[in-house]
Design goal:
about 425 residues; Methane Monooxygenase Hydroxylase, Chain G, domain 1; 2 domains; two-stranded antiparallel sheet; 16 helices; 8 strands
């Protein structure tokens, strides 16, 4: 949007005018895709397309422009503007467009145009900045125990997910948004027109059906009141997740980070943030605790007794620990196993963000301690062999939680295992 403001790019520019090698869906389809379609997630790219071009962790990964050829043979969901589907591939293509226009790496331009002015001096955009910030390892649950298994960063992934920082960095970004694009000293990162456009819900053609998505933000997104007017986004990479909620009418925001994430415990991880923001707005969190029944059902070969879903899909409660598991390390007690931090952000009279620990995220929103077995480095307990009846199921779970490290090495070294998060 900063390039649009400066006139170097227009929302209705065709992507092929900046990236002649863009051939998604064939030359005819690709020639109709615009910058606006990419931002609004309405190019026709299906969600799995992201797996083809994202999560490259090896050295010497290709640039965004060098990856888009993998989209040539992807079948579109429909003509541009007619179908909504969130996929990281859209924002990887945007990174290639930015690099073509600026002649600079996307991360470098992002720091100069947005992160620096916003006060996000410690932001992580690549592996080098992650090492400089001593980024802690990400965690995934292995048989119920949070284990440090995620250690990769896509050096060209800042546009679609590998952009991070500490709570101070995220709070600075939230404050910039509450000030509608203005910096603390009165400078402008985003104009009021840009802020308005980004927070307008997209409409599909020809019926005008709302998508729940703006230009980079979820708008309400199907959440119940009082969050139906929230501007928000969530996201995750293997081992990490983050959530940011803007409540412009109340002039407050909430940011939350967790260094634990895996597809099998997606709902439990994300519900921590949704519950926190409900409390912040005076609502009540769900009566049921975040459920890890999906995780248990996969790992232990079937749904655990006492855990399940009601006909409406709502988790009935935390699953009991499987035989032989200590309750303290059960993924149903997710917040005791990972590292969860949350902060409420409010704009003060001088326009400076004020951050306070928010009890909405739990009784103690500081850094959680890992299970005793991990703190003491007890390898026998940490890696103990599962029961005989569970081994086939455990192998299936590993295929979903760790084998993404080994897959897709043949084509550009891409690794599967990342998905953008939706609301409940």
């Amino acid at each position: 949007m900063t390039l649009v403001q400066s006139g170097r790019l227009r929302l209705d520019d065709r992507v092929v005018d900046h990236l002649p090698g863009f051939r998604f869906g064939g030359a005819s389809h690709a020639s109709k895709v615009t910058i606006r379609h990419l931002l609004a997630q309405t190019t026709g790219l299906p969600e799995p397309a992201g797996f083809e071009v994202t999560d490259c962790f090896r050295s010497g990964c290709p640039s965004p422009a060098e990856r888009i050829g993998a989209l040539d043979d992807v079948k579109p969901l429909g003509p541009p503007g007619m179908r909504y589907a969130y996929t990281s591939a859209n924002y990887l293509v945007l990174a290639a467009v930015v690099e073509a226009v600026t002649k600079r790496p996307f991360g470098d331009y992002l720091r100069q145009a947005v992160l620096g002015p916003a006060g996000m001096d410690g932001a992580v955009t690549d592996a080098v900045s992650a090492r400089r910030r001593n980024l802690p390892p990400g965690h995934q649950l292995l048989w119920g125990i949070p284990s440090a298994v995620a250690d990769g960063i896509d050096d060209h992934g800042a546009s679609y997910g590998y952009l991070g920082g500490d709570l101070g960095d995220l709070a600075a970004f939230a404050s910039l948004q509450l000030r509608r694009g203005k910096t603390v000293d009165g400078g402008t990162v985003l104009t009021s027109d840009s802020v308005r456009l980004m927070r307008e819900e997209g409409r599909l053609q020809p019926a005008g059906t709302g998508t729940g998505y703006g230009l980079g933000w979820r708008i309400g997104g199907g959440l119940e009141a009082p969050l139906d007017t929230a501007v928000w986004h969530t996201g995750a990479t293997p081992g990490y997740s983050a959530m940011l909620f803007l409540l412009p009418q109340r002039n407050i925001a909430l940011v939350l980070q967790q260094n634990i994430y895996g597809l099998l415990h997606d709902g439990a991880v994300m519900e921590v943030g949704f519950g926190a923001v409900r409390l912040l707005t005076g609502g009540r969190p769900p009566a049921a605790q975040p459920s890890a029944s999906t995780y248990y059902a996969t790992v232990w070969g079937g749904q655990c007794p006492g855990a399940g879903d009601d006909p409406g899909g709502r988790a009935l409660g935390p699953a009991p620990a499987p035989p032989g598991r200590d309750r303290r390390t059960s993924p149903a007690r997710l917040r005791d196993g990972g590292m969860v931090r949350a902060r409420r952000v409010a704009r003060c009279g001088d326009g400076v963000a004020r951050g306070v620990d928010d009890p909405a995220a739990g009784e103690d929103v500081g850094t959680r301690r890992l299970p005793r077995a991990l703190r003491r480095g007890d390898r026998r307990r940490r890696h103990r062999r599962p029961p005989d009846h569970a081994r086939p199921a455990c192998r299936r779970a590993l295929a979903l939680t760790t084998s993404w490290r080994r897959r897709r090495r043949a084509d550009l070294g891409f690794l599967e295992g990342r998905r953008e998060q939706r609301g409940p």
